[in-house]
Amino acid sequence: MGNLKVKKAIIPAAGFGTRFLPATKAIPKEMLPIIDIPTIQYIVEECIDSGIEEILIIDNDSKQEIRRHFSIDERLEKKLYETNKIHELKLVHDIATRIKISYVQQNNPRGLGHAVSLGEEWANNEPVVVLCGDDIMVNKNGLPVTKQLIDAYERTNSSILGVQEILRENVHKYGVITPIIMDGRLIQISDVVEKPKTEDAPSNYATLGRYVLSPKIFEYLKTQTPGAGGEIQLTDSIRRLMKEEKVYAYNFEGVRYDAGDKFGYVSAVIDFALERDDLREKVLEHLKKKLNCK
Ligand code: G1P
Questions:
Q1: CA of 111 to the centre of ligand 1 (A)
Q2: Atom of ligand 1 nearest to the CA of 175
Q3: How much distance in Å is there from the Cα of 132 to the middle of ligand 1?
Q4: CA–CA dist 161, 109 (Å, integer)
Q5: Which of the two ends of the chain, N or C, has the fewest CB atoms closer than 10 A to its terminal CB?
Q6: Test site for ligand 1: of 11, 30, 132, most ligand atoms within 8 A of the Cβ
Q7: Residue 4 has what pLDDT?
Q8: What SS3 state is found at 233?
Q9: Closest CA to 123 of 209, 42, 52
Q10: Quick one: which atom of ligand 1 is closest to the CA of 235?
Q11: What is the pLDDT of residues 107-144, one digit of tens each?
Q12: What's the pLDDT tens digit per position in 243-277?
């Protein structure tokens, strides 16, 4: 299967963010912050913490803010230096220098599979992690989710789909696996289907925006016809890949927030605030007051 070491990650970020309009009319949804950190920065940090060395962001021509966020801003850095705001200076400088990020534009979004296919040349026949920007993962005392999946990839020499069990009523929103054998967190699977009807779903285990894929995936993406919702689905190409190579699922450890959903977003803001020394007490006090008012 070629080069086994996983060093590259693709972050698709070209969607319109329709679930968050009007906020996302002029601001990319990936730049909406959980308190003071844009959601895409959490995804980039998960990559860095998982040993990824290079990232490709699939953006579009109205998402310049993402590129600006990950570039050096000399004027801002000079100002912070001159005003002795060294902590803030480090924050903004680090974002621009910690990892090499490249960009490819997808100006006419045609689905997750299409976005990932644009990374073929960049991937250069190496395995890639795919991280969906809406899914923010927290595994407080353990390995980052991407690292767990990379370890499983390197152990099995096979593509890995990050999954967790979800409520049956939500399966229609996700890729859903057909599990055969569970070996701890590693799951042998026989199929994966995109957005099945509740009554047709083969299990309650959904793919949740983290994949480690063998470079063969690009061959299938090239010829992938539209599937669910008329979009070129990554799931459909993974399904075809499974006929040629082994693909596993991995029931990852950690909490996932769907930051693309309003309730998921609010939950993330509250939980992240409660984890911060500068906010925990005040937020708890506020929540207690609210609860007592009911
Ligand atoms: C995409 C994938 C789906 C996956 C989901 C995870 O769907 O197509 O298989 O389960 O991300 O968040 P989307 O949320 O873009 O509709």
A1: 10
A2: 9
A3: 8
A4: 23
A5: C
A6: 132
A7: 74
A8: coil
A9: 52
A10: 9
A11: 888 999 999 999 999 999 999 999 998 899 999 999 99
A12: 999 999 999 999 999 999 999 999 999 999 999 99
Per-residue model confidence as pLDDT tens digits over 21-50: 999 999 999 999 999 999 999 999 999 999
Q: For residue 178, what are the CA distances in angstroms to 45, 59, 166, 189, 201?
A: 31, 32, 14, 5, 9
3-state secondary structure of 208: strand
Q: Kindly give the distance from the C-alpha atom of residue 140 to the centroid of ligand 1, in angstroms, as a whole number.
A: 24
| 3-class secondary structure, 203 | coil
Which residues contact ligand 1 via a Cβ below 6 A? 112, 132, 134-135, 174-175, 194, 206-209, 233-235
Taking the centre of ligand 1 as the mean of its atom positions, its distance from the CA of residue 113, in whole angstroms, is 10
What are the structure tokens assigned to 122, written together? 């960049």
d(CA 191, CA 88): 48
Q: What is the DSSP letter of 231?
A: S
Pocket test for ligand 1, best of 39, 192, 207 (most atoms within 8 A of CB): 207
Residues whose CB is less than 8 angstroms from the CB of residue 294 and which lie 6 or more positions away in sequence, other chains included:
none
Q: Are 221 and 113 in contact (CB under 8 A)?
A: yes
Q: Where are the alpha helices (DSSP H) in 125-207?
A: 145-156
